[in-house]
Write a structure and sequence with these properties.
By secondary structure, the chain is α+β, with helices and mostly antiparallel strands. It is built from six helices and four strands, in the order H-E-E-H-H-E-H-E-H-H. The termini are far apart.
């Protein structure tokens, strides 16, 4: 089996589930790796990265960064995308794109489906943000309940 850098992705757009699973947490940022973006856009990883390098001024550190070798090990275990065999491993660590970096990619890629893919990716980021906000609200409500009932149970324990 060939690596993601050597095979042109399928022409069908991967579904929302793929996009949601492609969002990883690296260095405290929610990102999508270059290999997943290349698959979504229907381009080779090499071509995506060439366009980024040609337009590097559009990708400051808070939009895109290159993962480090230590991070790569944990990412490999999360995504399990490396193929076995000679020449199948990437020469460089993957680029990680934040939500803003993904939005910027649509301005440098000329892939026909770039706009549609970006819409799906932005929707996935928004969905993730809403889920995190919902979890934060639930956490605050649970904390309030704990404080309320801890006080009431304290009175009961003192009486006993």
């Amino acid at each position: 089996m060939a690596s993601a850098t050597n095979v042109r992705p399928q022409s069908a757009t991967p579904g929302a589930t793929f996009v949601e699973r492609a969002i990883l947490l690296v260095r405290g940022h929610r990102v999508i790796l270059d290999q997943d973006l290349a698959r979504l856009y229907g381009v080779r990883v090499k071509r995506l990265n060439e366009q980024v390098r040609r337009n590097i001024e559009r990708f400051p550190a808070d939009f895109m960064f290159q993962t480090e070798p230590g991070e790569l090990g944990s990412l490999r275990s999360q995504i399990a995308t490396l193929d076995q065999g000679r020449g199948e491993h990437r020469k460089y660590s993957p680029l990680a794109f934040t939500e803003q970096g993904v939005a910027m990619l649509s301005s440098v890629l000329r892939a026909p489906r770039a706009v549609q893919v970006n819409i799906e990716i932005m929707r996935a980021f928004v969905k993730l943000r809403r889920l995190l906000e919902t979890n934060a609200d639930l956490s605050r409500k649970l904390d309030a309940l704990e404080r309320k009932y801890d006080g009431q149970f304290g009175i009961v324990f003192e009486a006993i």
